[in-house]
Every structure is written in C-alpha cells, then in structure tokens.
Amino acid sequence: MRSLLIPLVLASVCQAAQAGDISSAYTDLDWKKDCVTYAQAEEGDGDWADLACSGYRGYPVLVAYDDARESLFYGFPPGGDMASAWESFSGFNSSGAKVEWRIETNGDKAVPFAVIHRRSISNPEDENKPTEVLLVAKVAQMDGRDSCTVGLVLATGNPGANDQARKLADEKARAFACGKDKHIVIGNVPAFGRVDN
Q1: Which residues are within 8 A (CB) of 5 and not within 5 positions of it... i.e. 6 or more apart?
Q2: CA 19 to CA 75: how far, in whole Å?
Q3: Tell me: the pLDDT tens digits for 88-127?
Q4: Biggest CA pair distance of the chain
Q5: Closest CA to 24 of 98, 92, 83, 74
Q6: Is residue 145 within 8 Å of residue 76, measured between CB atoms?
C-alpha cells in the first residue's frame, strides 16, 4: 500500500510545482506622482490625455482619458504605443489608487498575468454614491502584448467581490483571447464596452 502512495504523492507535488504559486502585489496609481503625460488635447480640442504610469517591476500601466472616462492597458502595448482598443464604462468613471497584480511564481521567475483594479462609475440617480466595480484584466507580456478586460465584478454591496475577482483572474486571465472571448460579468454592473481602433 505504501509503495502505491509514494508515486501519487510525488505526482501531486510535481503538478503543484508546475502550476506555480499565485500571490498578489500592490502598486500605486497616482497620476501626479506615478505617471507621465505623453499626449494631450490642445486648447479647444476637447478634454483628453494619454499617460504612461509605473506598474509592477517594469510592467507599465497606460491610461487613456477622454471626457471623464478612462481606458487602461496593463503591461507592454503592441508596437510600444497605446492600446489598440478603448475599453471603458459608458458613464463617467475613474480608476482607484491601488492596482492588485496577480503573480505566478515558478522558481525565481515571477510573472504578473492579471490585475484587479477598482473603478468608480457615476450613478445618475445619486451623484454622491458612485457604483464600485472590480475590473479584472489580462496583463500584456513582452511576447504577447495583449491586454484586455477579462471580467467585471460588482463591488458595491458585495462583500465577496475581492475573492470573486481573484478567482476570475486566476482561472481565466492567462488563456483569455482579447478581442475574441467575451468578458465575464458578476453582478449588476454599469454598461461597459470595447471599441477596436
């Protein structure tokens, strides 16, 4: 009996080692301290700006701001330029000051594969009570350069939102095909869309 258990135990240990350990790291996102504006509207040309911000260990966060709405891209963009798609809520919105990076560690290699980022969306019924949503996004790698929204989790009135967002990130982000797969929505989330440039 013992001789049968040893291969099973070894197999489970090997599988765990191959899968890698998943953990979280947090970075700040303060437009004044952590970002550089590299393009913005001229006077009389609307209200928009593009910013490059520091992220996790060299992985940048790119912010496209337009008319009180934000579209964010996490990781390395295609061609070194801003993301090829605009993803945002239809209502006025803003991003939170903390970004949670989900990181897979194999040996001495730690790779962020997803982010969880709180967004506040204006509430037309009560401007003092915005709707809070956790946005889960795939992180663009040097070789893939593909980042997009994997899912949206309603955070307002949802005590399990953080756990739901982490589960979504860990199970879906790595294999998610941007522009093809449909993002997952948990809860009654405000309208959100993607426009490919």
Answers
A1: none
A2: 22
A3: 999 999 999 999 999 999 999 999 999 999 999 999 888 8
A4: 80
A5: 98
A6: yes
Token duo for residue 149: 């929204």
pLDDT at 181: 97
What whole-number distance in Å separates Cα of residue 116 and Cα of residue 111?
15
**The residue type at 32:** K
β pairing state of 93-106 and 149-154: unpaired
Query: Are the beta carbons of 86 and 105 closer than 8 angstroms?
Result: no
Tokens of 125: 């019924």
Considering the entire predicted model, what is its pTM? Answer: 0.88
What local confidence, expressed as pLDDT, does residue 82 receive?
62
Q: Is 176 a residue whose pLDDT tops 80?
A: yes
Residues 6 or more apart whose CB falls under 8 angstroms from that of 35 comprise 29, 51, 52, 53, 54, 63
